C-alpha cells in the first residue's frame, strides 16, 4: 500500500472542486486544508453519522453531487447506513471510505478486522450498484474518472497510510457558525441551480 490520504484527497479535489462534501474527523481536518469550501458539511457531530447526513442531503438535493469522506472506524459505527443507501439508491451519492485500519483521531487504536475487512464487498451486498478498491495513487488517478461518471450510489474504499498531519481543528467542525455558513451556501446553490 503506497497511497497517502492527503494525496488521494488532493486528487479527488481536482475532480470535485465545487461539490457538496461530507467529511468526517481526520478526513475532515485534511479536507478543510486541501479544499476549503462553503459546501463542506462539517456538522456530523458523532462518529458514524456522515453517511446518514449525506444520504439526507443527496435525497433533498437531487440535482447536486454529494460525496462522503468517511473513516473506516466511523463507518463501522453505522454499517446499517449502507443498506439504507443501497435501498434508496440515490444516483447523486458517492461514498469514499479512507481505510487505514485505525481509529486515528481517538488514539490510533486498531479497528476490528483491520485491513482484512472488505468494505466494498459489504457495500455491494447492501445494494450499491458500483464499488471500487484502490490502494495506489496512480491506479486512483486512472480510475477516478470512471468512478465519478455515471449514476450512483457508488462506494469507493481507499486503502491509505497517514500523510501530512493537518491541524485537528475541532472548534471549526463543531461551530454553529459553520453550520449557518453551510446552510446559506446550500440555499444559494439550490436557488441558482433551480432558477
End-to-end Cα distance: 46 Å
Secondary-structure content class: alpha/beta
Give the CATH level 1 class: Alpha Beta
Order of helices and strands: HEHHEHHEEEHEHEHH
CATH topology: Rossmann fold
The percent range for helix content is: 40-55%
CATH H level, superfamily name: Thiamin diphosphate (ThDP)-binding fold, Pyr/PP domains
Number of alpha- plus pi-helical segments: 9
What's the total number of strands? 7
Domains, number: 1
Low-confidence stretches: none
CATH architecture classification: 3-Layer(aba) Sandwich
In words, what does this structure look like?
The protein has 195 residues and is α/β, with parallel strands linked by helices. The chain has one domain: Thiamin diphosphate (ThDP)-binding fold, Pyr/PP domains (Rossmann fold), CATH 3.40.50. It is built from nine helices and seven strands. The protein has helices at 5-15, 25-34, 50-60, 72-76, 80-88, 119-125, 137-148, 170-173, 176-193, and strands at residues 20-23, 66-71, 93-99, 102-103, 109-110, 130-134, 154-159. Strand 4 (102-103) and strand 5 (109-110) form a beta hairpin. Helix 1 (5-15) packs across helix 2 (25-34) and helix 1 (5-15) runs parallel beside helix 7 (137-148). It is globular and about 40 Å long.
Amino acid at each position: 500500500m503506497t497511497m497517502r490520504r492527503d494525496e488521494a484527497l488532493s486528487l479527488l479535489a481536482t475532480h470535485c472542486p465545487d461539490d457538496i462534501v461530507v467529511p468526517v474527523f481526520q478526513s475532515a481536518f485534511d479536507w478543510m486544508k486541501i479544499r476549503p469550501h462553503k459546501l463542506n458539511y462539517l456538522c456530523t457531530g458523532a462518529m458514524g453519522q456522515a453517511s446518514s447526513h449525506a444520504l439526507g442531503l443527496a435525497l433533498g438535493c437531487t440535482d447536486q453531487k454529494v460525496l462522503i469522506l468517511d473513516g473506516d472506524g466511523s463507518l463501522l459505527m453505522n454499517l446499517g447506513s449502507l443498506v439504507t443507501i443501497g435501498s434508496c439508491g440515490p444516483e447523486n451519492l458517492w461514498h469514499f471510505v479512507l481505510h487505514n485500519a485505525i481509529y486515528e483521531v481517538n488514539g490510533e487504536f486498531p479497528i476490528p478486522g483491520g485491513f482484512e475487512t472488505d468494505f466494498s464487498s459489504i457495500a455491494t451486498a447492501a445494494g450499491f450498484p458500483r464499488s471500487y478498491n484502490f490502494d495506489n495513487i496512480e491506479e486512483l488517478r486512472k480510475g477516478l474518472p470512471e468512478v465519478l461518471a455515471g449514476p450512483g450510489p457508488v462506494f469507493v474504499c481507499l486503502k491509505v497510510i497517514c500523510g501530512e498531519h493537518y491541524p485537528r481543528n475541532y472548534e471549526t467542525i463543531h461551530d454553529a457558525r459553520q453550520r449557518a455558513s453551510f446552510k446559506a451556501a446550500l440555499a444559494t446553490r439550490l436557488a441558482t441551480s433551480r432558477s
